[in-house]
Request: fold
Amino acid sequence: MKILLRTNRFYLTLLNKTYSTALKSVTTVQVNGKEYRADDYTNITPKITSYINRNLHLKKDNPLSLVRQRIVNYFYASFTHGGNPVFSVYDNLSPIVSTRQNFDDLLIPEDHPSRAKSDCYYINASVLLRAHMTAHQSELLRSGLDNFLMIGDVYRRDEIDSTHFPVFHQVDAVRLQRKEHLFVNHPDLNIFEPNYDPTNPHTFTNSISDPSKQSCHTLEATKLMEGQLKNHLIGMVKVLFGENIKYRWVDAYFPFTHPSWELEIYYENNWMEVLGCGIMRNEILANAGPTNSIAYAFGLGLERLAMALYKIPDIRLMWSTDDGFLSQFQDRDVNASIEYKPVSIYPHCTNDLSFWLPPTLTIDTFMSNDFYDLVRDIGGDVIEQVKLKDKFIHPKSKKHSLCYSIVYRHLERTLTQAEVNKVHEDIAAATVKAFNVAIR
Ligand code: DAH
Reply:
């Protein structure tokens, strides 16, 4: 992809090159097929623009997508109404947003450092690449939603090292509760203090000077929401990292929530921050529509979770299109525990294995995941990939047959064909024994 900079007299096409000097004469910038007015805020580069539409979070074999699916599954399964999920998911919203969406709607002050040109990729003074998924909170509330997840790519100017990249992915969420739901067993309790009139929110000055709650909310409503929020998030972290994960809550500040917290988990001898959350500022709800509710919100980064879960040492690997990387996450159960193995530079060997299934099995009932596990059990670390190559039903005998390609690669040395053949024979023998198949 390229950025087209148009001046009054000519078009300037720039590829992989910053254009601060060219900017002086530039009047428009083209991003993602659309033309925008350029101004002295414009700092988006062609390289950054090239990441738009990669949608790693939606690519089936990308680790970010596996973590996304696990989080979505958790929220789908934990909150249902009449068998239907309560949360709706927005994972395809355009990353090009207004400064109103990214900042003003979220009560981020004019002079807040997160607005700085040095921190964001601006298309112009009023349009930028979203710096967080929270940017969509108000528009989705305005459209009438009450429980939703927003998932996508976010852009921040930052150093590039093994844990930082200017583009990363976030999951943000909002859960709104009305009095009838929050206090099902206590109809006498209220969300709002008596001096706040939800039908006339703009006559009230909401204060956050009390660390325990916003002045419009009752302490009961705030504490109940805090309890639910923390339980839901701990549940999610346990689904990802296991029941025994060590965690702690840390008080935090965000302009759009009060009170606010960060959740840290103990990982590889360090406390690692995994998310920010809190009770949504009532002004945001009042401006966007729902006036009779209290809500919690949270936001987390997918890269950090994926790197910890799968032991991926460098954030840049997420962008890899190399088969040696992606194949490690291919065709895997989303809940499988996967440990990333650095891609070897040594050549690979591919051997095929074809077999007839016994009459008790068909090409549709054969459990390929069981077979993959067996291959890994026998072959160990030299197995790089197992792919289904062919399915076949014999026209006369009606016997069913499958063919798999097994890719062998050692991480530290070149394998000989003789060694590979030996492992391959062992796998064939174990397959015959385990599934009662006949090698073709
Ligand atoms: N937007 C924040 C960030 O990018 C994370 C966050 C914190 C999101 C609290 C929320 C929230 O929705 O309630 O750092």
